[in-house]
Amino acid sequence: MPLMTVRARSAALAAGLGPCLVLSWAACRPAPSTSSSSSAARERDATAARPGVPCGALDCMQYDSPREAFLQALSAAGDPLVLGLGEAHAPKGATVPSAARRFTGDLLPVLAGRASDLLLELMMPPDGCLNAVAEVRREQEPVISRQAEANPDEYVLMGERARQLGIVPDMLRPTCGDMDAIEHADASDVIDLSLTTIARLSCAQAARLADRDALSDADRGKIVVVYGGALHNDLSPTPETARWCYAPQLDAHVGGRFAALDLVVPEFIGLDATWARLPWWPHYDKTRLGRKATLFRTAPRSFVLVFPAAAPSP
């Protein structure tokens, strides 16, 4: 693997932009429905028309709530069939709610009635390859140890909440062959192969769901939502990260009806070179913009939503 690629991978993972590399067999458990699509639609329409306030470059706009910014991104994306959501994972020791938790509580209900599926970046291999899974978990420990312990649990809770809202949750489904390949890879290639496997599975499974929606009277035109690390949903990745991204191939599959949206908790934003290379990073000043939700458009159908900063403690 070229040295530049190794550096790009390591820096992105250290910044929390890579995947939540956790293997889980826990399916999202069904729960009784607590929200109807009609009430969700009324709630969605109530906030859809509120304008934002311009705040600078990259079409920067500020909103009173993350929900308003999220709705604006969906509208500006032009009725996407696939929405790739990327997050900077909560680091170990985080003291403010993660992007996953905020999405589950505030933004996911907006998708009730307009999204058919939620594909989560958790791998659920078959039961027949438990030994390989255990070894891969051990090899991924250096990455997992830098992330908050609650990250995988929050993904499962997100799936449960989606099911309550009428959105079908699922996880990535690697084969035992996929797990064996990662298990027997050279130590320096384990994370790289994990990342490429996640991108390949995300693309294949989301494409199948989008194709199924196109043939369904009930789900035609609805959104397939893919939720995971911000390393994977980039529509214009660098050469070093392209093989870890599912977005360009999936965008071609749905005829340009893919939208990418990164969810960022301001307290997790770093000062290192990895963050500084992000196009919106030089334009976000938490002191000036941190009180409201901030939405950047970094490219056509590519957005970044920075949540409001937590109120300072007394």
What are the defining features of this structure?
314 residues, alpha/beta, 9 strands, 17% strand
Amount of helix: 25-40%
Strand order of the largest sheet: 1-2-8-9-7-3-6-4-5
Taking the alpha carbons of the first and last residues, their distance comes to 49 Å
Strand content: 15-25%
Number of strands: 9
Contiguous uncertain segments of 5+ residues: 1-10, 21-43
Biggest sheet record: 9 strands, mixed
Structural commentary:
By secondary structure, the protein is of the alpha/beta class. It has one domain (3-26, 67-306). The chain has helices at residues 3-14, 37-48, 66-77, 99-107, 130-144, 151-164, 176-183, 190-214, 247-253, 273-276, 286-289; strands at 53-56, 60-63, 82-87, 115-123, 168-172, 223-229, 258-264, 293-299, 302-306. A 9-stranded mixed β-sheet has the order 1-2-8-9-7-3-6-4-5, with helices on both faces. Strand 1 (53-56) and strand 2 (60-63) form a beta hairpin. 44% of the residues are buried.
How would the blueprint of this fold be written?
Elements: H1 3-14, H2 37-48, E1 53-56, E2 60-63, H3 66-77, E3 82-87, H4 99-107, E4 115-123, H5 130-144, H6 151-164, E5 168-172, H7 176-183, H8 190-214, E6 223-229, H9 247-253, E7 258-264, H10 273-276, H11 286-289, E8 293-299, E9 302-306
Parallel strand pairs: 3-6, 3-7, 4-5, 4-6, 7-9
Antiparallel strand pairs: 1-2, 2-8, 8-9
